[in-house]
Amino acid sequence: MSRLSLFNSPLLLGFDHFERTLDRVAKAGGEGYPPYNIEQMDEQRLRITLAVAGFAIEELDIQLEDNQLSIRGKQQDDPSRVYLHRGIAARQFQRSFVLAEGIEVAGATLDNGLLSIDLARPKVEPQVRKVPIAKAGDAKTGGGKTDGRVAIDRS
Fold this sequence. Notes:
This protein is mainly β. About 10% of the residues lie in helices and about 30% in strands.
């Protein structure tokens, strides 16, 4: 059985990388720890806030590889402590987010057990440019012979 793709339309040429990104997002969903919020601060800024109570700054790691933001936490057991009851386990986690093209990580803060990661989405100015059409046999296309490429005048 073949999988139906949203990006199979001939009108969506070149969007196959979005499909791969969506597949990675679906696989990264996994476990629900730690819980998180995603807030829109304004038109150009987002904030991801993770509840990481009990983790120190040294036990947290944030990495950005390509468009994938990964947050890892690993607590160390303190062997000098003697527990009569242990209901709060030292646990590790990894939470990943796939960022849209152009999103930048502006910074991160840890405050009262909440790790906030600020993201910036630069304003994109639309680019419109005219593509001239050359006649067959024009000097730009090699005297009537074409190799399948389009000549673009950037003036």
